TrEMBL record:
It comes from Parambassis ranga. The gene is slc35a2. This is UDP-galactose translocator isoform X1. Its main location: Golgi. It is found in: Golgi apparatus membrane. Residues 370-380 have a biased composition (Low complexity). GO terms for molecular function: pyrimidine nucleotide-sugar transmembrane transporter activity. It is a multi-pass membrane protein. Belongs to the nucleotide-sugar transporter family. SLC35A subfamily. Residues 385-395 have a biased composition (Gly residues). Keywords: Golgi apparatus, Membrane, Sugar transport, Transmembrane, Transmembrane helix, Transport. The keyword Transport applies.
C-alpha cells in the first residue's frame, strides 16, 4: 500500500513539473506576442504614413477595422450557435434590438473609441514611433486618475510614485523632442509635432475615461462579450462613417473609399482588427508584471527599430525619459502589498495598443468554478490597440474588441 502511495505521489509531482514547465513556456509566448503586438502596430502605422505617394484616408481605415471586427464577432457567435443562422439572428435581434437600452449604453464609449482611433493615426503620423510609444503610456496615468475619481478606487504608495515618475519621464522626452521639432520645420517636413502631441494627449485622456466609464455603466452585466463587440462595432461603424464624411467626404467621393490602400495598409488594418484578438488568446497566461514588462520591452523595440527604419536619433535626454517611463510602467504593474486596498482596474496597468492586453481577458472563456468579480468583463475592455489597441492595440487600440 505504501509503495502504491509513493508511486502515485511521484506521478503527481511529475505531472506538476510538466504543468509548471508548460505554463512557463506559455508565459514566454505571451510575452513575445504582447511585445510584437504593441510595437508592430505603431511601427507599421508610422511606416505607411511616412511613405511617399498617395496616402490612404485614415478615417476609412478606422471604419474598415470596425467592419472586420464585427464580422469576426458575428462569425464567433454563429459558431457558438452551432452554425444555426436562424438561432443566431434571433439571438442578435433580442440582444441588440429588443434590449435597446442596454445597447444604447455603449454609444458613449463607442464615440470616444472612434475619436481615439482617429487621433492615434494623427498622432503617429506626426510623431516619431518611439516618442509616441513613450508618450502614450500617459494612458496609465489617466486611467488611474479616472478610476480614483469615478470609481473611488485607491492606489498604493508605490503606484502613486510610479505615476509621478511616468509623468516626469514623458515630460523629459518632450523637452528632448523640442530640438528635433525645430529641425523638422527647418527641413520643410509636413509633419506637425504639436498636432501629434495634442492628439496623443487627448487620446490618452479619452482612453482613460472610456475604460473607466465602460466599467462603471456595465458593472454586473452578464451580456456576452461578443455581443458587446457587435454593439460597439455598430456604433463604431456609424460614427466612423460620419467622421469620414465630415473630414474626407469630398476626397472619398472623388477617389474612392479604398484610395491609397496597399498591401502594407491592409496589414495595418488586419493588425488593428485581429491583433487584439490574438492578444486575448494569450493574455490569460500573463500576469500584470509580465504585461508591464512587455510594455517596457516594446518601447525598447520601437526605439531601436525606429533608429534603423526612420533614422530616429536617441540622445541622453530621451534615454533618461524613456528609462523613467519604462521603470514607472513596471512599478505600477507590481502587486500591491497584502492588505492593501484594491487598485484600479487591470486595464489601467496594461499596455497600449494593446489597450488592448488586460482588457482583452473578457474574450476568454472562464474556467468553471473560477471566481470572477462582476465587473471583470466590463473592466476588460474593448480597447485594443491602436490601440492596439486596446493593442488594440489594440493594443490595439484602435477600437475595442472588448477590449
Amino acid at each position: 500500500m505504501a509503495v502504491g502511495n509513493h508511486s502515485k505521489t511521484e506521478e503527481e509531482r511529475g505531472a506538476s513539473r510538466s504543468q509548471s514547465e508548460a505554463n512557463k513556456r506559455l508565459k514566454y509566448i505571451s510575452l513575445a506576442v504582447l511585445v510584437v503586438q504593441n510595437a508592430s502596430l505603431i511601427l507599421s502605422i508610422r511606416y505607411v504614413r511616412t511613405l511617399p505617394g498617395d496616402r490612404f484616408f485614415t478615417t476609412s481605415a478606422v471604419v474598415m477595422a470596425e467592419v472586420l471586427k464585427v464580422l469576426t464577432c458575428l462569425l464567433i457567435i454563429l459558431l457558438q450557435k452551432r452554425c444555426s443562422v436562424k438561432e443566431t439572428v434571433y439571438f442578435l435581434v433580442d440582444s441588440i434590438v429588443f434590449q435597446y437600452k442596454d445597447t444604447l449604453k455603449l454609444a458613449v464609449p463607442s464615440l470616444i473609441y472612434t475619436l481615439q482611433n482617429n487621433l492615434q493615426y494623427v498622432a503617429i503620423s506626426n510623431l516619431p514611433a518611439a516618442t509616441f510609444q513613450v508618450t502614450y503610456q500617459l494612458k496609465i496615468l489617466t486611467t488611474a486618475l479616472f478610476s480614483v475619481l469615478m470609481l473611488r478606487k485607491s492606489l498604493s504608495r508605490v503606484q502613486w510614485v510610479s505615476l509621478l515618475l511616468l509623468f516626469a519621464g514623458v515630460a523629459i522626452v518632450q523637452v528632448q523632442q523640442e530640438g528635433n521639432k525645430e529641425k523638422s520645420v527647418a527641413d520643410g517636413s509636413n509633419q506637425n509635432y504639436m498636432v501629434g502631441l495634442v492628439a496623443v494627449v487627448i487620446s490618452c485622456l479619452s482612453s482613460g475615461f472610456a475604460g473607466v466609464y465602460f466599467e462603471k455603466i456595465l458593472k454586473g452585466s452578464s451580456a456576452s462579450v461578443w455581443v458587446r463587440n457587435v454593439q460597439l462595432g455598430i456604433f463604431g461603424m456609424v460614427l466612423g462613417m460620419l467622421g469620414l464624411w465630415w473630414n474626407d467626404g469630398a476626397s472619398v467621393a472623388e477617389h474612392g473609399f479604398l484610395f491609397g490602400y496597399t498591401s502594407m495598409v491592409w496589414c495595418v488594418i488586419f493588425n488593428q482588427a485581429f491583433g487584439g484578438l490574438l492578444v486575448a488568446v494569450v493574455v490569460k497566461y500573463a500576469d500584470n508584471i509580465l504585461k508591464g514588462f512587455a510594455t517596457s520591452f516594446s518601447i525598447i523595440v520601437s526605439t531601436v527599430t525606429s533608429i534603423y527604419l526612420f533614422g530616429f536619433h536617441v540622445d541622453l535626454l530621451f534615454t533618461a525619459g524613456a528609462g523613467l517611463v519604462i521603470g514607472a510602467v513596471y512599478m505600477y504593474s507590481l502587486p500591491k502589498p497584502a492588505g492593501g486596498s484594491s487598485s484600479p482596474s487591470s486595464s489601467s496597468s496594461s499596455s497600449a495598443l494593446p489597450d488592448r492586453g488586460a482588457k482583452m481577458e473578457a474574450f476568454l472563456p472562464k474556467a468553471q468554478g473560477a471566481a470572477t468579480p462582476p465587473s471583470s468583463a466590463s473592466t476588460s475592455h474593448l480597447t485594443g490597440a491602436a490601440g492596439g489597441g486596446e493593442g488594440g492595440g489594440g493594443a490595439t487600440s484602435v477600437s475595442p474588441f472588448l477590449p
